[in-house]
Sequence to fold (474 residues):
Amino acid sequence: MDMVDVPISRHRPVSLEKAGEDTLRIVWEDGLVSNYNVAALRRACPCATCVDEWTGERKLDPFSVLETIRPVRIEPVGRYALRIAWTDGHDTGIYSFDYLRALGEKDEKAGK
Amino acid sequence: MADPIHKETVLDSLRSVNDPDLGKDIVSLGLVKEVDVHDGVVRVEIEIPMPIFPSRDSFRAAVADKVRSAGAEKVEVAVTSVIRGYRPPDRQDVLKEIKNVVAVASGKGGVGKSTLAVNLALAFARTGASVGMLDADVYGPSLGIMLGIEGRPTITDNEKMAPLEAQGLKVMSISFLTTKDTPVIWRGPMVHGLVSQFLSQVEWGELDYLVIDLPPGTGDAQLTLTQQAPLAGAVIITTPQDVSLVDARRGLKMFDQVKVPVLGIVENMSFFLCPHCGGRTDIFRHGGGQKTSIELGVPFLGEVPIDADVVAGGDAGTPIVAAKPDSPAARAYTHVAERVAAGLARLALQEGGDSKSLFMEW
Fold:
């Protein structure tokens, strides 16, 4: 009898960690470690108030996000994303695992 | 008499036994609960995280053979079961007493979704598992008829609805709340409210499996359920025709978007088994379900034949798995149930431990 393969999110985090005052660290199931500058993460918020749903154009002014911004609370959404609540009161951003993974890989390629 | 065999030798021999459902060897899966050598008799206990389906008889024999070929003369193998549960990390507080919530879905109506749901639930129940069924097909509830029950749910001390019981299942359906011939007409928001109520206001008690019969298509009820119920996974049923397969793909996309794992695709009406000669006829060109599952990268859970007894059983309130468990159709449903249970157990083994770790206060 062959195996039952259960598809899950392509990439799944196994842990979240505060790696520094302004750095969120995600350890992925396959062992990759991604570090995120939290202000950059806030600026990359994918929610409908930050990104135009139709054009994909970023509506959030990156300069409006201060370097001092911090997450307040991070929680899983379904089995596919994280919701991050921020010190500026914004909490509608749902960051899919695949999106976070792509952000992490982009930073890695940029030599960050 | 030969030297008594060592425990380690037995354990080593078990390393080459793969679990037929879970796809790895039983030692690294941690299923070998006990190995005991006493007076030349080797006793092995294997505890599986899913129900014991009939196929476990040959598994038990295979384990015994392995141990015997390692040098044991008398071997006793016991297979026990402790059903594991899986729920998404953000739904820890809904339907807490239920280990696994599974949805049965189809892209369109008339492909045998409710029949699959009922027979799946009964196949689980026949293994001794405690099973509930929720008829969330708000527009065309049919579980009452298929299981031969009608009545109204009573209200429990906690002011919740108690499900009705039939054929070893706990059942809740919208049809228990409406009159027989009234068509059920619901606006989107009402569907949402009703489904939420079913999720929060029914006192199921402890269950190993809750099988949810979804309405066909991709509408309000499906969305509410996928968003609110702690769905461990979905099973999609289709028929072999292309038009039905297109709809199955659509259903799959919906679950994909809300990241509910699709446990697999079942192809119904795959073939016709002649009750007179036993010959097999592929009425609708069988194999489309398997093709779709390969194309979409989800498991193919099996095919179920067209069988007059299945239809008659459904109408009479005696589903085939309960009425004729040894018939080819019932065996096909049982096989599907086993693969579904295996998929759930694999999810529980893979993801069971890490659900808490994604919560964080900065």
